[in-house]
Amino acid sequence: MNRLKIGSILALLIGPFIIVMNLLEINEKKVIDREGIEATAIPVSKLERRGRKGGRTYKLEVEFPTKSDGVQTAQVEVSKELYENIESRPVLKVKYLEKKPTQVIVLGEPLGKPELTYVGIGVLALGLFGTWWHFIRK
């Protein structure tokens, strides 16, 4: 089987997977935003990851008080602006679920990544076109 045929079949499967996983993450964060308990968090450390193609993700490790466990530590992904200016704003407002205090969102940060939905749609479109081109159009 040709590499392009395999690639089109994989794109046909990976595109919807990206879309669904992104929507599940957004829904999970919306639940935390709607039902979560607000707390004041103190950033402990900064983590910057560089991707293979130059992309970067910025994370903060924060400590915040919870009702049941005392002090909880969690990593949250933040924007570049917040990551660079965290020294001038040493306190963050976060929300967490009482059942899962390790899942935290930072108030004021976007809940999702809409660009991932567009990437998933693009990959799905390429998969549909490639599948049509290689298997159906004849």
Question: What characteristics describe this protein?
Answer:
single chain, 138 residues, alpha+beta, five-stranded antiparallel beta sheet, 3 helices, 44% helix
Tell me what the structure shows.
This protein is an alpha+beta fold and 138 residues long. The chain has one domain (3-136). It has three helices and five strands. Helix 1 packs antiparallel against helix 3. The mean pLDDT is 88.
Quick synopsis:
With 138 residues, the protein is α+β, with helices and mostly antiparallel strands.
Percent in strands: 25-35%
Q: Terminal Cα separation, in Å?
A: 17 Å
| Percent of residues in helices | 40-55%
| Sequence of secondary-structure elements | HEEEHEEH
Biggest sheet strand order reads 3-2-1-4-5
Low-confidence stretches: none
Structural class label: alpha+beta
List strands and helices in order, with pairings:
Elements: H1 3-35, E1 37-50, E2 56-66, E3 70-78, H2 80-84, E4 92-96, E5 104-106, H3 114-136
